[in-house]
Amino acid sequence: MKNIKMNISRIMNGIHLGSIYFAMALLVGMAIVIIINVFMRFVLNSGLRWGEEVAKLFMVWFTFIAMAVGVKQGLHISLHLLPKKLPVKLDKILLFLKDFITFIIALVFLIYGIKLVQFTSRSIMPATEWPSSILYLILPISAVLIASEALMDIFGIEDYPEKIESIFNKGNK
């Protein structure tokens, strides 16, 4: 059983690391498209016809990937209204409740994200002529990532976020 948990943890950390690099690529891509478009508009008096649409697509995808990464890393805003020295049993109940609510929210994202993708698959984005569903496809993808992180916490599968942090903090030491 411990070996299975370690394999799941290793796979999820790989997915998480890939998500971070994908989000970084989206952010860089968005910046490049915007810079090129601004340069072309103000210097060459002609912009990229598809630039704004692609930059918006990158921004939406970046936002939802970053949200999933934030859930894994515990980076979202939280309130610490209760004393830190709660009884262990109560602390475990509250952590379970947090993970369960996160899982339910992810399920809502998944269900309505799939419906949104299906609904928008019949229309196209005007500049790129891509299906509009591409813009919203990230919603169910990020929902799966968030739900899997919540399930890992609920079932006590350690995810070792410090391993991910150590990859990005090598230059800061």
Summarize the structure.
By secondary structure, the protein is mainly alpha-helical. It contains six helices and no strands.
Provide an overview of this structure.
By secondary structure, this protein is an all-alpha fold. It has one domain. It has helices at 2-42, 51-73, 88-120, 133-136, 138-154, 161-168. Helix 1 (2-42) packs antiparallel against helix 2 (51-73) and helix 2 (51-73) packs parallel to helix 5. The longest helix has 41 residues, at 2-42. It is elongated. The model has no long low-confidence stretch (mean pLDDT 88).
List the helices and strands and how they pair.
Blueprint: H1 2-42, H2 51-73, H3 88-120, H4 133-136, H5 138-154, H6 161-168
Helix pairs in contact: 1-2, 2-5, 3-5
Radius of gyration, CA atoms, in whole angstroms? 20 Å
Q: Count of DSSP E strands?
A: 0
Major sheet characteristics: none
Alpha-beta classification: mainly alpha
Low-confidence stretches: none
> What is the helical fraction, as a range of percent?
over 70%
Q: Terminal Cα separation, in Å?
A: 36 Å
Question: What share of residues are in beta strands?
Answer: under 5%
Order of helices and strands: HHHHHH
Provide the number of structural domains. Answer: 1
Overall 3D shape: elongated
What's the overall average pLDDT, rounded?
88
The total count of helices amounts to: 6
